[in-house]
Predict the 3D structure of the following.
Amino acid sequence: MTTSTILLLILSVFIATGLSYYQYYYKAKNKLKVNLFLAFIRFLVWFGVFLLLLNPIFSSKSYEIVKTPLPIVIDNSESIKNLSGDLNNDVYNQFIQNQKLNEKYDVQLYSFDKDFTANGTIDYSGKQSLIDNVAKNLKQLYRNTTYPVVLFTDGNQTQGNDYVFSFQENSKIYPIVLGDTTTVFDLKIDQINTNKYTFLKNKFPVEVFLQYTGNEPVNSIFTIKNQNQVVLKKNVFFSSQNKAQSFSLLLDATKIGIQKYTASISSLKDEKNRTNNYKNFIIEVIDQRTEIALLSDIIHPDLSALKRSIEANEQRKVSILKPTEIKDLQKYNVLIFYQPNASFKTVFEANKKAKVNTLTITGLHTDFAFLGQYQEDFSFKMASQKEDYFASYTSGFNLFAQENIGFENFSSLENKFGTITSKGNTATLLEATIRNMPSGNPLLTFVENGKQRNGYLFGENIWKWRLETHLKKNSFDDFDFFTDKWVQYLTSNTAKKNLEVAYKNYYNEGETFQITAQYFDKNYELDENAQLSILLTNKDTNEKKTYNFLKSNIDYKVEFDNLKKGNYHFVVTEKDSKNTFSGNFEILEFDIEKQFVNPDRLRLEQLANHSSGKLFYPNQSQDLIQSLLKDSNYLPIQKEVLKKSPLIDWKLLLILICTLLATEWFVRKYNGLL
């Protein structure tokens, strides 16, 4: 309490005394004995009121003991059980129930597999191991805190970043290795790389990585089958000096459609784990690829960027040609006119009969007088000076699903300054802005005339967008998916459907995946109030289950988790209109938690060393407990807590004032002073 507040309280005492004296002695007609009692009550009332007006703040100190948190984190994935490292509850109960440990630390239990859970059930049923996710969650829970971590795990991570460098700095990690570390004989298919698509009667490459655990020389046979028919067999030799093999193969694509292959490796010697001797992979064989002609009369970095981006989808092939070099337009599915001028005259006239879908890209070298004469979708009033146009995403665009990948943050595209006016109905994905002000011109827009579809990009230097996407995310994927969306739209002449569903033909067992859908009303505008459901049928067991889609920004999504292997048929239905979409996909047999034969002791040792911790085994739990108890870096801290309480929060004082006033009134009434 400050000095000024104390002085005001003393002044309040004198004022309250003066007011009470004035009312019950100076102004009183009768000097009764009860007046002394009434004056005292009135003094308390006045003083209480002054206290409320002054509202002094009272401070109180208390002390509390702050303990260092000690997370006990248990790996709850299937691999713990598979590696004969089933953790007895007594092992981690030694930490949780140790009295001295609890006196020094705030001991807390967590478990993890795909998710990170506090006080979860330990049943070793998890299908994934995300140790990196443990580090992220602990950072969020204990920000700006230095603490040790006891980590019970086999160290085998199935997803995520390298966990060795993921944990918070200055926090010691004490891994306790679960599972049998004895080296056992094991052959393993580590990885198989192949393309998603290939073309009929072509050869497609398959890259194989094999791994061997053991010390003795061994001969093995690597086999690839397609529908129980052997398509390749190869002898592979391993030894203590040659424990890894990689090679590339070429297989023939003889049938159209989705082809499932099974790779296997075997030897005459018995293995503890044969699950990792097999791996499935699928490739889709198509009878033709999409041919795209990129026509330009100039050299520009946009040409290379567009070709690379479009051909990121193996079903696409881009040919860069001059307008005078193209002969047969019917050979191509899409024509891209890059900055057309008078040299494009023959191509434009030929396409009036061929009616191939087009994308026109304009820029500083475009002849807008020529373009305005040879297309019927837009009119142009353009000046000679250039202008920088930035992109603004149009959320109502509905020709195809395209999320905003940060278009507003991309560099500007250059085009001539002027007015671009539509002659009909257009669907604009990106509007053009000048220094954050709408220009009224489209930047990327599409037009449908019957079955023919045309697109327009009014600006050059889109190569910068692809480069900036890579700089931000270390990947071209966002830009390449964006390119693939409009290419797919332009390559199709089929009528638009009310219900569009996106899915893959196969997924791995235990994988979490999504199926997305879009529903359009009669005007082909995205219906945000649709009620979509999916009926999923396992063809092998005839088991059926219905799921509801959830609304996102631009589509509807449903997520599946841990579906069993097999072939599935699905039907998506919109409740009110009864529109349906059906399809099929396959869940491939693959249990990633059964791919391991030993704990990853080396990685756990790296983690311990990097964090200044130490590696332990379950039979060394007491040693770790003693080490934690002796560690002087994690001592409990006595913390002073200063609590400030303003008088106005005291409800009791208000009740007391009201009680005193009521008492005063009753006494005055009883003595006839009212």
